[in-house]
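Please produce the structure of this protein holding manganese (II) ion.
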Amino acid sequence: LAQPRTVNAARLHASLADLAQIGATEGGGVTRLALSDEDRQARDLLCDWLRQAGLIPKCDDLGNISAVRAGREQGPPVLLGSHIDTVVRGGRFDGALGVLAALETLRTLDDLGIETRRPVGLVSWTNEEGVRFEPAMTSSGVVAGRFTAAYVHDRRDRNDHRFGDELRRIGYLGDPANRPSAAAYLELHIEQGPVLESLGLAAGAVGGIVGITWNEVTITGQADHAGPTPMPLRRDALTASAEIILGVERLARERDETAVATVGRISAQPNVINTIPGTVTFSVDFRHADPAVLEELVARLRALVDEVARRRSVIANVDRFWTSEPTPFDPGVLGAIRDAGAALGIELSELWSGAGHDAKYLAEICPAGMIFVRSRGGLSHCEAEFSDPADIEVGANLLLNTALALAEVA
Ligand code: HGY
Ligand code: MN
Ligand code: MN
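Below is the modeled complex.
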């Protein structure tokens, strides 16, 4: 890079603050679930910003919104993006930072009158979080050919609303012809973990994403009266689940210091004070960088469930419904990020992501990479999620200059 360029940080911070108003929670976070009214408002705002930047937003059949700034040559763009959907009472930076830093990159290219050889594009992926509609990263997954649009459109939320119907309801059921293409993909994201803070670094180059597998466990016992039913006669689905859940935690703790297991979602039926729970459903999220360990954790889960079910005379089912294999990112993109760091005088560490990202699926169809920005306290998926404005500026400048290198600035 001749000389590194820099973003208009004030404009980026203003856009982050504006977007964070949509779905703002009283604790200073954001709830903006995929295909909700808040998601629609955020999409409308993003499309307005894209038009104000002289771009034409396009929407595909999964609701992915993209826009491309022309390069000297035709062809697939260097695609920059992330997601604007959030978890429940999540933070204002998870996803939003990557989409708005991509927007800031496009705005800055115009401010500086820069012409690139390749087009540079922005994308906002629908339903990265997979919270309202499980699993996660469904819409980048369709573009990468890992899910069909029909499978994703048929996913249902807890109120039995169908993904495809909700997409139409908010007015963002677009055309398959508008699915974004990419010559390369780059995503700026908050780390959502403690590593950069422990190293005292503002940003990092991401080497890859760990493997993730999502399971749903269903335990069926016998609903019964809380009073007249003696303890030895009970087939309590919730106490059986409780034993399994503590076993799941033990599985990860005893495996090694990087294995993680989370039971994040649970529902007990009929969920009333004086009835022994008859049916309990809960999620089990395993993550590890080694695919063999992921398989071992699932095998141990199945053995644990079978043992508890037999001993407690309940019926158990484990449905392993999503697996995202460990994904190393492209060495060429990683090198471009490091070069941008050197040109900007920014010390970078290389680290892997424990969180899933759409970049995982893009890595299956083009050279892909990610840049991380430090998270205060390593916190994320909570209202306390925070990244320092100075760190955000560092991340956005890294994104801008890496994108320029990948797009071959004139
Ligand atoms: O689950 C994840 O890691 C991501 O936040 N969807
Ligand atoms: Mn995210
Ligand atoms: Mn997230």
